[in-house]
Design a protein that fits this description.
- The chain has one domain: Vaccinia Virus protein VP39 (Rossmann fold).
- It is built from five helices and seven strands, in the order ααβαβαββαβββ.
- Helix 3 links the parallel strand 1 and strand 2.
């Protein structure tokens, strides 16, 4: 699945981006109390606005992204702030994207829509009572040349998880940028 541009698009975007790290996702900050203490897999971490925020709070971070330029920027930000995170270049469109990824207490996906088959793989990578946090453009966001219909996160994306997770939060919001969703799920005991 190509999401809002391909690897070269995002490499170019991150290479041209100036300035420091952006603020963490507002929804993540507002819902931080729902995350478990411990480890976090930050999927599609970009240049790390959420990775940095979570590392500053003491979480053990692994950040994965398909943009090498984003990971270079994130590595620089981590170094400047004397923080640590394991970073890995991963093709998130690959069926093997999560192979060998390990088990985490939390998985954060911000502004990236994983396809349903990869979403269903995430249960293998969450500890007991682990938290899946997904936030981004929702199905009521206006589609344009940059954000396509297939990029929008839909509640139906989570249908394959219903036997393994319980819902903690389903929220849709609107602001000047468009329509957003926040979905937070907790892995239930098998």
């Amino acid at each position: 699945m190509q999401y809002m541009g391909n690897q070269s698009f995002w490499d170019q975007k991150f290479e041209q981006r100036s300035g420091g790290i952006m603020s963490p996702e507002k929804s993540l900050v507002e819902n931080i109390n729902l995350l478990k203490l411990g480890s976090v897999l930050d999927v599609a971490c970009g240049d790390g606005r959420n990775t940095i925020y979570l590392a500053e709070l003491g979480y053990a971070l692994t950040g994965i992204d398909f943009s090498s330029k984003a990971l270079v920027r994130l590595g620089r930000f981590l170094h400047e702030k004397k923080l640590k995170a394991y970073l890995k270049l991963v093709d998130l469109s690959s069926e093997q994207a999560f192979d060998g990824m390990g088990v985490f207490d939390n998985i954060v996906i911000n502004h990236y829509r994983l396809d349903a088959s990869k979403l269903s793989q995430l249960a293998e990578h969450l500890s007991e009572d682990g938290i899946l946090f997904v936030s981004g453009f929702g199905e009521h966001h206006r589609v344009d040349e940059r954000i396509r219909s297939e990029d929008l996160i839909r509640i139906s994306d989570f249908d394959g998880l219903k036997d393994q997770f319980e819902w903690l939060k389903k929220e849709a919001t609107r602001d000047e940028r468009g329509g957003f969703v926040t979905f937070i799920l907790k892995k239930v005991k098998a």
